[in-house]
Amino acid sequence: MDSSLHSPREPSTSVPTVVTIDGHSWAYWAFVWLGLGSLLPINFFITADQYFRYKLHDPSMPNSTASRLELAYENAVTLSTSLPNLVTTMLVTFVCVPFIHKYRIYTSLSGITICLLICFSLIFVDVHQWREIFFMITMILVMFQGVLSAILLNCFFSLTSTLPSQYIQGFVAGQALGGVFVVICSIASILFSSDISTSAAIYFLLAIFVFLSNIVTYFYLERSHLLQVYSSSVQQINNENEPLLRSTSIDDPTDTIDMTTLALRQRLLVAYKYTKWNFFGVLLTFICTLSLFPAYMSKIQPAHPTTDYPNTIWSERLYAQVMTFLLFNVGDTLGRMISSKVHVPSLLHPRLLFCLSALRFVFIPLFGFCHFPNTNGYPYIFKNDFIYGFIVLSFATSHGYCNSLNMMFAPKRVHAQLSSTVGALMLMALTLGIFLGSVLSYGVVAMYGDAKAPDNEYFQ
């Protein structure tokens, strides 16, 4: 077992032939594209906050003030995604660890596409008279796509963990690129049309196109030479995690349940034993990130008063998109790209990597000094947009770097037969971190300002 720490694991005896079979690396870019689509729904719901705030705005209130539904939107989205995502991940991890099946993938991709189609259809409906119902429908759709995303990610992380490490790195890098793609689509839709509904329609149509292309991409990927080479490993993983009814006596069902539970517990405990520092590294990385992004950071205003800008489209519609969402996703992508070339701390120093992940919590007080509309008297020190942009870029790059390194190193620390279990375990750390960070974001926003006040400014 310890020997795996000093050399890359090889899931099957067919590994040496992969370079020849997949010489053009198209499968790597296929995983990048699948990674781009895997987190696209939550990115779209978060980045499209201007559209949803427009829908949730109370017409009886002045345009400069925000209703409680508007102010609660970002927190509600992250919580509505993270909670069902966490519960589903725990269920698929402890009940059917980890089962890679094409029908799970196709069903999840199709279900998320249907959710986006429903959101697209609601663009053309006037919801001002039933804003609360629209808010509830949106959160139900967010929860539903959270469940499907958890199943989809479980399959993809389990699958990529059985392949050479560059494929899981490509998948993780694709997730970061998905954020960049979403923000660019948002900015383009804003510049294309000044009408928020038209911009949102273009926005959701692009998301639907991506998911349809993901279905086609996986259709060809599962027939590729790469997965054919590793098909024996995948089938072995699936067989190991099936109920053991066939291999035990039918006369004693209690013994069957005990054996199944024992097998699952053994795999998870051994996987956790060798990857616990990477597990908690991913956990802390996402707790820190989600406590600030997007609920707190999306409300940060330009460092200078709005009157300093001749064109209010920058301060009212583009500032948050560029300075917060675009810079964050560019930094996240940059960090994941760096991790493919730079491995510091190395595989042999998981505790140091854990400390680096924990050190990121210093960003919580740093962002507190930026131009957040606080009412709690917290000092506003960084009166320059370049300082804010630098902090965002550093925060995002460290997120992508720590997340990617932990995800890449974890499967290498165990035997090949446990690699898929490790993939599911790391996904559980990711979803648990997202959930805890989403809950913590309420405290961060409350600490720096009373965002629940109905007369706060309306931020776009």
Count of extended strands: 0
Helical content (DSSP H or I, runs of 4+): 55-70%
Q: What fraction of residues sit in β-strands?
A: under 5%
Q: What's the mean pLDDT score?
A: 78
- Could you name the CATH class? Mainly Alpha
The H/E string reads HHHHHHHHHHHHHHHHH
What's the Cα radius of gyration?
A: 23 Å
Tally of DSSP helical segments: 17
The CATH superfamily appears as MFS general substrate transporter like domains
Characterize the main sheet. none
CATH architecture term: Up-down Bundle
Q: Structural class of the secondary elements?
A: mainly alpha
Low-pLDDT stretches are: 1-24, 241-262, 451-460
Separation of the first and last Cα atoms: 53 Å
CATH topology type: Growth Hormone, Chain: A
Subcellular location: Membrane
Protein name: Equilibrative nucleoside transporter 1
Transmembrane segments: 26-46, 109-127, 133-159, 171-194, 200-221, 277-298, 318-339, 351-374, 386-410, 422-448
InterPro entries: Eqnu_transpt
Tell me what the structure shows:
The protein is an all-alpha fold and 460 residues long. It has a single domain, classed as Growth Hormone, Chain: A (Up-down Bundle). It contains 17 helices and no strands. Helix 2 packs across helix 9, helix 8 packs antiparallel against helix 16 and helix 12 packs antiparallel against helix 16. The N and C termini lie far apart (53 Å).
Question: What's the short version?
Answer:
The protein has 460 residues and is an all-alpha fold.
Chart the SSEs and their pairings:
Blueprint: H1 18-21, H2 26-38, H3 40-47, H4 49-56, H5 68-94, H6 102-122, H7 131-161, H8 165-192, H9 196-221, H10 225-229, H11 231-240, H12 253-292, H13 312-339, H14 350-359, H15 363-368, H16 385-409, H17 419-448
Helix pairs in contact: 2-8, 2-9, 3-8, 4-5, 5-7, 5-17, 6-7, 6-9, 7-8, 7-17, 8-9, 8-13, 8-16, 12-14, 12-16, 12-17, 13-16, 14-16
